[in-house]
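Dear colleagues,

As part of the handover before I leave the project, I'm documenting each prediction I ran so the next person doesn't have to rerun anything. This entry is a single chain, and its sequence is reproduced below.
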Amino acid sequence: MKTVSTSKSHGGIQGVYSHASEACACDMTFAVFVPPQAKDGPVPVLWYLSGLTCTHANVMDKGEYRRLAAELGLMIVCPDTSPRGEGIPDEKDNWQFGSGAGFYVDATQAPFAKNYRMYSYVIEELPALIAANFPADMSRQSITGHSMGGHGALTIALKNPERFKSCSAFAPIAQPSTAGWSKPALEKYLGTDEAAWRAYDTTLLIEDGKRFPEFLADQGTSDGFLQEGLRPWLLEDACKKAGIGLTLRMQDGYDHSYNFISTFMDDHLRWHAARLG
C-alpha cells in the first residue's frame, strides 16, 4: 500500500492511498478518514460507495462528512467505483459503463471478468487491507452509498447481513435489472441470462429471501433520474412485502447532486453511529 496524500482535518487524518489490487488486476485508489478517537484504540467503520462517473474523491471533496465523523468517532472508507488504467476494457464514450461504472458486481463476461470484480474488492480485498493497516474495529461496520453506490450498499448489506450493523442510501438505484441506465451494464458484465442479475438487484434479492433489519434512504423529489432510473417506490414495495424496516424520506426540491448528499450526510452519520454503538 502506498500513501498518496494525508491532511489533518477536524483533529483526524484524511488520507488517500493506492495499492495493487488482486481482485481488479490493477492499481486501485481509495480514501480513508481516521477520526481523532483512533489515537485511543480501534474505531467503527462506515463504508461509502460512490455513484456513476465518481472516484474516491467526489465524496471526500464534496460530501462534508469529516466534521461530524470526527465528533462521532467514525472511520469513513471511500473506495473507487471501478478498475482504471491502461489495458482495462472500457467504453470511453459511455458514462454508464466501464470506467467509473463498475456497479459493484463481479463480472463474468469477457473481456470484463478479469478486472471488473468490484463486489469482491469491496467485500473481501479492501476490508482486509483496512484491517491490516488502519485502527479499524472490523466488528463494527456499516455501509452507505449514492445512486449506483446506493445500489451497491443495499445489495452488499442484503448478502452480508452478519457483516454490517446498518445500511443506508442516498438516491439508490432500486431495481437495476430493469432501469435503462443499469440494465445494459448488467448484461455486459454478467451475460444475457437475467437470472444472474438477481444477485445484484436489491428488490429481487429481497424477493429471493435475502433480509436485512432496516434501511434508511433519502431521495430528492427534483432528481432528474427519479422516474426512470431510481424508482424508490419499488424498494418501498419490496421492503413492505418482506417485513423489512424502511425509512424512505422524499426530500422536497432536492436533486441528484452532492448538494443533496451533503445536506443529509449528518443525518446518515448519526443514524449509523447509533447502530454501531
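The beta strands are 2-9, 12-21, 26-34, 43-49, 75-78, 136-145, 164-170, 214-220, 245-251. The longest strand covers residues 12-21.

All the best with the project,
I.
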